[in-house]
Write a structure and sequence with these properties.
Layout lengths: L3 H9 L9 H14 L2 E6 L4 E7 L6 E7 L3 E5 L2 E5 L4 H18 L6 E7 L7 H7 L8 E9 L8 E2 L2 E3 L1 E10 L3 E2 L9 H13 L9 E9 L7 E2 L2 E10 L2 H20 L4 E10 L6 H15 L8 E3 L7 H5 L4 E11 L14 H17 L1
Parallel strand pairs: 3-6, 3-7, 7-17, 9-16
Antiparallel strand pairs: 1-2, 2-6, 4-5, 8-17, 10-14, 10-15, 11-13, 12-14
Helix pairs in contact: 1-3, 2-3, 3-9, 5-6, 7-9
Keywords: Hydrolase
Protein name: M20 peptidase aminoacylase family protein
Pfam families: M20_dimer (PF07687), Peptidase_M20 (PF01546)
Length: 367
């Protein structure tokens, strides 16, 4: 047995938000150095870590990636960091795998790199790691995520999680204030914002595609009830199973907002934030993961690849570095009541399964 539970119990008690994972990264870096890895801290000026184990013999460069950050929840009116997406479990599994790999002498050719990435929840942590050169010499990159119970129960694992592309569009719509008794002298930002929501709701992509767009925030208040408001803020959530339709959807949304508010004389300052690409996985890497899962859980433990409307910033890696072969799998852990729920829980025995699957993957590539 590895010491993954020891790591988890410590990391679970020190949740930290994106790019603020100071205690978390210090713990991980020290453990990797003590295990015998060459560790580089503060990748690209962040809390990111890259550790390396060189066999001294020619071969591919394989990397395992885990995210470190927690989520911010409003609990009784106060912002509180909590590990409600399982990143503490991910870090524990990858750290324990790294320790086991060096203890057992598994790497006999090429190099193994361990990436601990900040700020997955912000959607910018992977980009920061890429910009910091973490993938410059990597041939193959693997990541994983614990899965909700209804998607994958304990004792099973998914060889490829096919995440969706997502984006957040924010618009600040500006009109002209006026007294409600004389609305013709103003431009009602609330009306313009409603028109924008309706215009976006009228967008259509091909019906055989899986996609969605919906308004998720609407803020408008003149401060009094007898004035025409001049400012409104609206957010939309965009999702698509594939990257190309997301590009089309995003372009249509931006045009719909701009033209609909202009028709009423208002203007819109529009920004696209927290973009994450759809899954890009290599069949070769997925096959390695599938074989490793079967060796640990048996044939009955292997599911088919699964599509999820959720998103994951891991896929910035292959989008930015298409030459890198990537694989991303899902670990069944009886996770309830759901990811990002403030009371999320999962079966901790699943973490050891994660270590065993990752170890098998490393053996197949670098053993």
């Amino acid at each position: 047995m590895s010491n993954t539970l020891e790591h988890f119990h410590y990391l679970h008690q020190i949740p930290e938000l994106g790019f603020m994972e100071f205690k978390t990264s210090a713990y991980l870096a020290e453990a990797l150095e003590n295990a015998g890895y060459k560790v580089t801290r503060n990748i690209n000026g962040t809390t990111g870590i890259v550790a390396e184990l060189d066999s001294g013999k020619p071969g591919p460069v394989m990397a395992l990636r885990a995210d470190m950050d927690a989520l911010g929840h409003i609990i009784e009116g106060q912002l509180e960091a909590r590990h409600t997406c399982g990143h503490d479990g991910h870090s524990s599994v990858v750290l324990a795998t790294a320790q086991e790999v060096i203890k057992e002498g598994i790497v006999r050719k090429g190099r193994l790199k361990i990436l601990f990435q900040p700020a997955e929840e912000l959607g910018t942590g992977a980009l920061a790691m890429v910009e910091g050169g973490a993938l410059d010499d990597v041939d193959m990159l693997l990541g994983f995520h614990v899965r909700p119970l209804e998607e994958c129960p304990m004792g099973q694992a998914v060889p490829a999680m096919l995440y969706s592309a997502c984006a957040t569009v924010e618009a600040t719509i500006t009109g002209l204030p006026a007294h409600a008794a004389r609305p013709h002298l103003g431009i009602n930002a609330l009306d313009a914002a409603v028109a924008a929501v309706q215009a976006v709701n009228s967008i259509h992509l091909a019906p055989n595609l899986t996609w969605s767009v919906k308004a998720t925030r609407f803020l408008c208040d003149a401060g009094v009830t007898n004035s025409v408001p001049d400012i409104a803020k609206v957010c939309w959530d965009l999702r698509s199973q594939y990257n190309e339709p997301m590009d089309e959807l995003k372009a249509k949304v931006l045009k719909a907002i701009e033209h609909s508010v202009a028709a009423l004389g208002a203007t819109a300052q529009i920004s696209v934030q927290k973009e994450m690409p759809a899954a890009i996985v290599s069949d070769d890497v997925t096959a390695i993961i599938a074989e490793s899962i079967v060796e640990v859980l048996g044939e009955q433990g292997l599911t088919e690849p699964k599509f999820t409307p959720g998103s994951e910033d891991f896929f910035h890696y292959p989008r930015q570095r298409p030459e890198v072969k990537t694989g991303f799998w899902g670990l069944g852990a009886n996770l309830t009541p759901g990811l990002h729920h403030p009371d999320m829980r999962f079966d901790l025995e699943a973490l050891e399964i994660g270590v065993r699957v990752f170890k098998n993957c490393v053996k197949k590539v670098l053993g």
